[in-house]
Amino acid sequence: MQGMVELSGKTAVVTGGGSGIGRALALAFSAEGMNVVVADVDLPAARETVELLTQATPDALAAVFSCDVSKADDVEALAEHAIAEFDAVHVLCNNAGVGGGGMLDECSLETWEWVLGVNLWGVIHGVKTFLPKLLAQNEGHIVNTASIAGHTSFPSMGPYNVSKHAVVTLSETMLAEMQQRVSDVGVSVLCPGFVATNILDSERHRPERLMDPTPVGDGAAAGGTEGDAADAPDPEAIRAMAVDAYAAQLEPEVVATLVVDAVKGGQFYIFTDDKFDTEVAARHTDIQQRRVPTSHGQLWERLF
């Protein structure tokens, strides 16, 4: 796969660009001399990213766009806006994502729809809308944000795991098709481990119609007993520990540098660390040996 060695003067579109990895990507591509379109469902946050971007690079060209990637019409409008502003798009980062999960017997359909809508359908909409344009100009690169959860199957993260596994195979399929076409359009799949972002606060942008009818972890309401609920860990305590743990992880700016290097070098898989290599290797061995998967361990135990 051929990389895009020269980025200056070209245009990048970053979804979920209002914070975290998305914000870092916008800043990193701008530092390379690219025009940047920052898309986010949180428009004030997107504007803040552009302010930071212009502070860092006064002559940078950037635009913001309010976009709910779970909606095809929003993503199509994003593409039209980017092309109207900068004539063409060369790099697309399908980065918008939310966290959401729980035990499979407790997860509501609303949670499934919300998580898959953003994490998977957001990527599908981005590929469906932008890939034909990149193919027509025979130049460009698409970066799909998956997760280390796309290569493992930790408990209590069903919807998130499913969405990220799907993004990995979507990206692998796209790579195979680009190779089949001998196209100069590149593709990468970003599989970060734990990064210091605010993904644990994803609920703040959750649509009202997709709010949980019953709080996850309510054992009695989910069909368990009162004893089950009493014995369950305190969700707020777990969340507080998780927030502290995420804050101590890799900075988004480091991830953004890896992504820029991957786009330039034509790298497909982008892993941010090797902390879960053992689990990934075990999964592959389990498959090869046709055996019952070995335990991946508890996610929270790896954090704390």
What does it look like?
The structure is a single chain. The protein is α/β, with parallel strands linked by helices and 304 residues long. It has a single domain (11-211, 250-276), classed as 3-Layer(aba) Sandwich (Rossmann fold). Helix content is 47%, strand content 12%. It has 11 helices and 7 strands. A 7-stranded parallel beta sheet has the order 3-2-1-4-5-6-7, sandwiched between helices. Helix 1 packs parallel to helix 2, helix 3 (72-86) packs parallel to helix 5 (121-137) and helix 4 packs parallel to helix 6 (158-181). It is globular and about 55 Å long. The two termini are 39 Å apart.
Task: Give a topology summary.
Blueprint: E1 11-15, H1 20-31, E2 35-40, H2 43-56, E3 62-66, H3 72-86, E4 91-94, H4 109-119, H5 121-137, E5 140-145, H6 158-181, E6 185-191, H7 226-231, H8 235-247, H9 252-265, E7 269-271, H10 277-288, H11 299-303
Parallel strand pairs: 1-2, 1-4, 2-3, 4-5, 5-6, 6-7
Helix pairs in contact: 1-2, 1-9, 3-5, 4-6
